[in-house]
Amino acid sequence: MCLNALEPALISMGLMTPGQSIAAETLAEGISCDVTLVTVGARRFCVKQALAKMRGAVEWRAPAERSHAEVAWMKLVGGLDPDWVPMVLGEDKPRHLFAMEYLPPETHPVWKVQLAAGHTDPSFAAKVGARLVRIHGETAGREDIARDFRNGPQFQALRVDAYLLYAAAKHTDVAPAIRSMAKNLAVAHIALMQGSVSPENILCGPDGPVFLDAEAASYGDPAFDLAFCLSHLLLKAVWYPSHSEAYAACYRALKDAYLATAAWEGHAGLERRTAGFVAALLLAHIDGKAPIDYVSAETDKVFVRANAKAFLVSSLSHLDELLERWTEALSDRQMLPDS
Questions:
Q1: What is the residue range of 90's domain?
Q2: 27 pLDDT tier (thresholds 50, 70, 90)
């Protein structure tokens, strides 16, 4: 994001005055957004701008207005507890960008980075589950919040089409199961989803997890959020097999903490939908429009695809059983001569 584009936005948000000195450093040029670290005087903060056309190998567009949904989600969650999200400092709706406080990696490392280094803490994972279920519980059955987050077209483009349906088109043998999930997800009306709950979008703050990247926020099925994070924890074991037991412990801790206080519906249906989404997302994280960067070897992709499809065909309904089967598959793989 160039300074000429930043300055008018910062002035409109009241974060700088005309003629004031400014410095900008690109923090991330992601698939869907630009994130810039801005220094104005002695103050530092981040500016995030949504892209209408995603970066990547395939054509992918989504409404840039999703930045407004992200701001609304962060303000809502900040109202539950200000330590759970960065503080929103301003919003420029015409430019589809907003400013938020900067949380440096020295005090707020990314959970994905910690997991990759083998710094696994099930108690932290449990806090992720506890905070996520609190957000879902506070918003379940709330028609006012459903009205404010009626972001179906955005969620459809960002998650249903780009993840589930794109993967289904590549794997016709399991496409009916995935398309059925996608259809139900598109019309779900249960609680507020964040849409991108993964270790790369969670910071390890001094007071626990801090959630980032809520541009896919929409009212729908909370099982999708839980599944999104659990699927990433499973895939970490393909990335670093030596930490597989620790990742499994984090999976259990997060899942148990979440289900312990999920009171808006019976656990059987919630867990069944979550298990289905986990299976579908394992496939989508490999063969969707935004494949993960840390499972790149073809042999690893073949392993993920085979197990994801087996889970879908089996219609698993229990998250513990899914983890057990995944763990067994990993163990069998490590015993092979070429593993």
A1: 1-102
A2: confident
End-to-end CA gap in the chain: 44
Q: How far is CA 164 from CA 17, 175, 176, 200, in A?
A: 45, 9, 11, 20
Instruction: Write the CB contacts of 123 (distance below 8 Å, at least 6 apart in sequence).
Output: 253
- Residue 176, both tokens: 């009916």
Angle at 37 between CA 115 and CA 232, to 5 degrees: 25
Q: At 169, give phi and psi (nearest 5°).
A: -65, -25
Could you tell me the pTM of the whole model?
0.95
Residue 62 has pLDDT above 90, yes or no: no
Answer yes or no: do 151 and 163 share one domain. Answer: yes
Residues 6+ apart with CB under 8 A from 57: none
Last residue of a domain, one of 78, 102, 126: 102
312 with 243, same domain? yes
Q: What is the pLDDT of residues 217-275, one digit of tens each?
A: 999 999 999 999 999 999 999 999 999 999 999 999 999 999 999 999 999 999 999 99
Asked if 53 contacts 44 with a C-beta cutoff of 8 angstroms, the reply is no
Residue carrying structure tokens 């009212």: 219
Tokens of 167: 């993967």
Structure-block tokens of residue 211: 């959630």
Please list the alpha-helical segments (H only) found in 2-86: 3-12, 66-80
Are the beta carbons of 51 and 101 closer than 8 angstroms?
no
Is the pLDDT reported for residue 216 higher than 70?
yes
Q: How confident is the model at residue 4 (pLDDT cuts 50, 70, 90)?
A: low
For 2-5, which contacts have Cβ atoms below 8 Å and span 24 or more sequence positions? 5/95
Domain of 58, CATH number, reads 3.30.200.20
Whether residue 182 sits in one domain with residue 46: no
The 8-class DSSP code of residue 265 comes to: S
Cβ–Cβ < 8 Å for 5, 97: no
pLDDT bracket for residue 19 (50, 70, 90): confident
* Percentages of the chain per state (helix, strand, coil), in multiples of 5: 55, 15, 30
